[in-house]
User: Fold these one by one.
Assistant:
Number 1:
Amino acid sequence: MDDIHPIAPEKRAAILATLADIERKHDVRVLLACESGSRGWGFSSPDSDYDARFIYVHRQPWYLSVNECTGPGQAQRDVIELPIDDELDVSGWDLRKALRLVSKSNPTLIEWLRSPIIYQQDAAAVAQLRQAAERFYSPLGSWWHYMSMARTTYSRHLGGAAISTKKYLYVLRALLACQWIENDSSPPPMAFEHLLQRLLPGGPVREATEALLVVKRASAEVTAGPRIAAISDYIDQEMAARAEGPTLPAGHGDGPWLDGLFRQMLAEHAPA
């Protein structure tokens, strides 16, 4: 798995040190920190960034103040974002924001909770977040999220003679996620190889995709190559078959239950 999801030991150590520094400077506790980008998907290039994302919780009074805990003229923020350097991209969402996104079945947050690369976690808190994500999961909303990604990338990047290896994989991953949602009650896995194993177990398209992955994992992030007929034809076919949205459950959740979970998590996981 390490060769598919490469995390250099010194980069993992740097990310953990950054998270510890965030906890000290912002007086928060990190509940989950994971990889969210191409390394989490399993097709990073040697020069790909490390996209570390995290969910954190403040002390309880931060949520209960009459006046927002901010500097002059600043709104109380529910995100922590560090300046992006040459390799590390680190940012996170406050617990309350994360639970609001859970209530909307936000696919990005669901991916964080299913990332194959975990830097740091409170196992009990993550289990509670995953339970909430399951209760509020919307197959229909998730399908449209991935289809929108596929259509946007397809229209902008797959029409030329030279096609970015990254963009090919972005569209393939999004389309396979849509297929997963159409046929499985669980959210699609974040790891690309799991989608391939289930939905493209063999054949010319799988072989062409595996060859493309070899190129992507060994080349610079901006590498492009000639049109690959097997992959392009497959994408064209799958896009045409999904010109209209499917009939899927929209999902729903219990707001009072989520409020109760938020209070429980504050009591159990907020810094003392």
Note: The first helix runs from residue 9 to 26.
Number 2:
Amino acid sequence: MNTTKKVAVVTGGNRGLGFEASRQLAKQEYQVILTSRNEMKGQAAAQKLQDEGLNVQFHHLDVTSDESSRILAQFIRQEFGKLDALVNNAGIYIDVQSNSNSIVNSQIETIEKTLETNLYGVLRVTQALIPLMKEQNYGRIVNVSSGMGQLTDMEGGSPGYRISKTALNALTRIFASELQETNILVNSVCPGWVKTDMGGAEAPRTPEQGVDTIVWLATLPPGGATGGFFRDRQLIDW
């Protein structure tokens, strides 16, 4: 069992922000467990980072499955005996694809499916992994949210995605409050509009720019911020 390196889990790590977050954390000497629902894509992503000389390994994770989350927790306990950072990055944006881009005609099924991954998935995985952090009284949890979930700047369109990210921010606040007497810090981050499969080619930010605040929050020192919503390492309104 290797307990010398810090250990990080990144969900949805096979592409985009999750892939780049895995790379940057590994460059900071973390042992990274890159997770993905698609095993073939996840293994290929981990292999690419391994080819760069980085300590990254793949583990299958379906965030919509209690069993899959438990299996991941058991694997980490057996292999490493601890967990130092969790980046809840896995998410979906299906409002447009399902022709439910307006709240007026949105389909409940689309919102339910979005919540299952973007909200319940984060809750499920965090509940499964947080005991590993509690045992060492150290952990950093980063929930990848979006400015589209900000109540202070809420607009129309994309109701499933917006609702899921607003609810995710509430989850961040609840976890942070219940863990405030510990050295487990929980924050949300808006990475901005990033060139990924989800963000599209027109986005102004590179994945490396997009993950800067994610990695910063995942590696905060003791006494760092908790219960906050950040963009570009600065607090933003909920």
Note: Helices lie at 16-27, 39-51, 66-79, 108-118, 120-136, 159-178, 207-218.
Number 3:
Amino acid sequence: MIPFDRDRALEILNNATARLTARAYIREISREFDLTPFQAKKVLTSLVARQDVAYQDLYGSTYVMESFSKPVRITDRFFILPPGIESIAGPNDIDIRISAGISFGTGHHPTTRLCLAALDRLFFSTGLPGHLQGGKAGDIGTGSGVLAMAACLAGMSQCMAWETDPNAVCEACRNVAANGLENRVNVIHGIMSTQDLKLSLVMANLRFPTLKQLASDICSILVPNGHLILSGVRAWEMDNLKTHYRAMGFSIDWEREAKQWGALALTKKP
């Protein structure tokens, strides 16, 4: 076996700002550990065998991605793992079970991780406000349902999860069932309705133009002092997004960027 530092090898993948093909990853491993291409390929083979990474076909090309065939820690509290896999979560950790599918929100993308980091901070690092614990949430464009489920598993009583893609709706419903949240997460096939909604938390992992378009509707469904988590924007769009939502009556509580993507946590002013 060729000696190498597994964590350093995985950091190459996790720190990459673009998806890496197998060839590109082998090249980076070779450079990092001063190995021949043949030796670097053996390192990749061993990472695949250990289920640390996996090959993923996307748009006709094959990329190396972090594997979610076993539990993967996303934040201090949240793990993502497939149904049927034994948990390794500690007493203060939270498992979110996600079946592999085509819907967005498997944990691979930086924006999903940023949103989960924002939820982790909100529920476990800020001295959770009483109106949030046990309150109702909304997830606009839920995809796999990961954020809706995370919010409920962290403490919200219910979450409405809107999604327009029928395939994603089916996958979200399956994931909700796998987590035993059928009575708490309501997956809705359609666009968000603002009628009679008073939510304590709203999440939206969408692109910048859509987040601007939805700002007034989001403001109308959040209670005063309600919390908002936004992502799906490029790092260079963050200033415009903050300016737009400040003008709508929100204060910025937290922001973070990863791999040229950004996320915000905001509070609706009273």
Note: The longest helix spans residues 110-124.
